[in-house]
Amino acid sequence: MIGQLRGHLLGKKPSLALVDVHGVGYEVHIPVTTFYELPTEGGEVILRIHTHVREDALVLYGFGTQREKDFFLKLVSVSGVGPRLALAILSGARVEELAAAVASGDATRLTRIPGVGRKTADRLVLELREAVEPFLLPEHAAPAAAPARADALQDDVLSALVNLGYPRPASEKALAQILRAGDCERTFEDLLRGTLQRLAG
Questions:
Q1: Can you list the domains of the chain with their CATH numbers?
Q2: What is the pLDDT of residues 77-119, one digit of tens each?
Q3: Do 9 and 3 touch, CB atoms closer than 8 A?
Q4: By the number of CB atoms within 10 A of the CB, which of 67, 116, 131, 153 ranks highest?
């Protein structure tokens, strides 16, 4: 697998860079944030590479920093998010801004990125909320939070379920069953996971 390319920039577009490495030209898909950092054509460029292998093609995705690449890999780990959508998400904001939106549960901010609907935004928040801390700026790092009130926590879980497309009455019933059973921790993630499992039968 190709993990890095170092060569001369033959051409660039907001979504694509052409890099000459010892006479071989590599087409690399890039986010807009990386495009802004590229040198002028002919200049030396170093790109961190993720090699995506498909049945019909080998596609290279490049990033100006390891931080961007690492966040890209977090994004593609989310169900329903492929490399192209992950690249579009990275093009919509800087890594620190995206991490802050995910950490704060601001799905609305994520839906402003072209190609990101509400369900995708909710999945990003749900699946990455605990994983984005290394990407946060110090001022955005979450302090130790006081335990949420039970009713507020339940409201958050129900809101997430409705946004994921589940009917509210069925969601309320499943959540009540989970709470009565007492078989999961009283955190947002655990309650949501348990309720989703109950709704899935």
A1: 4-63 (2.40.50.140), 67-140 (1.10.150.20), 150-199 (no CATH)
A2: 998 999 999 999 999 889 999 999 999 999 999 999 888 999 9
A3: no
A4: 116
In angstroms, the CA 195 to CA 34 distance is 40
> What is the distance between the alpha carbons of residues 69 and 90, in angstroms, rounded to a whole number?
10
Q: DSSP assignment, residue 31? A: -
Collapsing DSSP to helix, strand or coil, 178 comes out as helix
Token output for 50: 């993720």
| CA–CA separation, 121 and 58 (whole Å) | 28
Give the residue, 176 or 182, on which the prediction is more confident: 176
In 3D space, the residue among 26, 89, 7, 82 whose CA is nearest the CA of residue 52 turns out to be 82
Confidence at residue 186, expressed as pLDDT on a 0 to 100 scale: 67
d(CA 88, CA 61) in angstroms, rounded, equals 12
Range with lowest mean pLDDT among 7-21, 110-124, 128-142: 128-142
- How far the first Cα of the chain sits from its last, in Å, is 41
